[in-house]
Amino acid sequence: MPNCTKRAFLLTAAMLLAILVAGPPSAQAQTLKAVKERGTLNCGVGQGLLGFSSQDDKAGWSGLDVDVCRAVAAAIFGDPTKVTFTPLDAAGRFAALQSNKIDIFFGLNPTPKRALVVDFSVPVFNNAFTMIAKKGLGKKTWDDFNTAGVRIAVDAGSSQDQVATRLCPKAQILRFKTTDEAAAAVMTGRAEAQCIVMMLSLTMLKKNPSLGELVVPTPTFATTSNAGFRRETDKTWRDFVNTWLEFNRGLGLIRSVIIRNMESVGITEADMPAGITL
Question: What domains can be seen in the chain, in order of their start residue?
Answer without folding.
Answer: 26-125+224-271 (3.40.190.10), 127-222 (3.40.190.10)
